[in-house]
Amino acid sequence: MDCALKMTKLFSLIFAAFVSLGTVSAKAQDIKGDAKAGEGIIAMCIGCHGIKGYQASFPEVYRVPMISGQSAKYIAAALNAYKKGERKHPSMRGIAQTLTDQNIADISAYYSEHGLPGGASTAPKEVKAPSAKVAALLNKANCASCHGANYSSPVDPSYPKLAGQHADYLFVALKAYKNDANQVVGRNNAIMAGFAKQFTNAELKQIAAYLGSLEGDMKVVAQSRFR
Ligand code: HEC
Ligand code: HEC
Description:
The chain has 227 residues and is mainly α. The chain has a single domain (31-212), classed as Cytochrome c-like domain (Cytochrome Bc1 Complex, Chain D, domain 2). It is built from eleven helices and two strands, in the order αααββαααααααα. It has helices at residues 3-24, 35-39, 46-49, 72-84, 90-96, 101-113, 132-140, 144-147, 167-178, 190-196, 201-212, and strands spanning 55-56, 62-63. It has a two-stranded antiparallel ribbon. Mean pLDDT is 89; it is low at 13-25. Bound molecules: heme C (2 copies). One heme C (HEC) binds next to helix 3, helix 4, helix 5 and helix 9.
């Protein structure tokens, strides 16, 4: 082996070492999740997310969001937002604070594939058109440009799928971005605050009703706590 070749080998070894160091310091959202490991942790989630029609009563009565079939990176982003306090909902904050970064990655992998084999979207490419009034509202903030034309294909995997999510939950979520300074129910998100604040609550309710009426990937997969 000549000297130049040895040097190249050495450099690629050093390079590999840097790459693996880089993985260690990667963002929490980028940790690789293991759906099987996630299955072992979700016992504490199914009491709310695994019961059809289960309602939360705070800050108002609404169905808890569907998370089976949501995208993994978004589930992780949402759990991290509760953990860090950017999302204030008290019970989800308490739960997220008990989870490690690896737990979050595993749970997110599990739920993104739960009821959606392999996690690949099966949502229809085209969704029914909104009424002229709702279309104008959606266009005003160009919602589809981030959440996807069918509201199931967000441009970034850390953005949520919205199609078919419970309308009453979507309404509560939209109001929470509007009330970003509220220490109990607020959601502090620089992107969504700007959009939500452009609308009255009555308008947000109409948007939520339309998005909730669409066909999407998310479902409630009923699960027993005693398996
Ligand atoms: C006591 C009932 C309850 C339990 C238990 C619970 N959740 Fe939640 N979860 C909720 C409610 C209510 C919300 C909506 C909170 C809000 O308005 O921000 C929520 C929101 C979420 C969201 C955000 C969904 C979205 O579309 O943004 C995720 C992700 C989530 N929960 C995951 C979990 C996981 C994972 C567990 C178990 C480790 C869990 N939850 C346990 C009630 C619960
Ligand atoms: C520039 C990109 C962008 C645009 C445009 C946008 N959103 Fe979002 N949306 C996001 C991101 C990012 C999040 C996740 C925020 C977080 O982590 O809480 C989000 C979250 C949401 C949520 C919460 C979903 C859940 O499961 O909790 C709803 C509802 C929503 N958006 C609706 C809308 C509507 C309606 C519009 C148009 C009026 C819109 N978005 C425009 C990027 C966008």
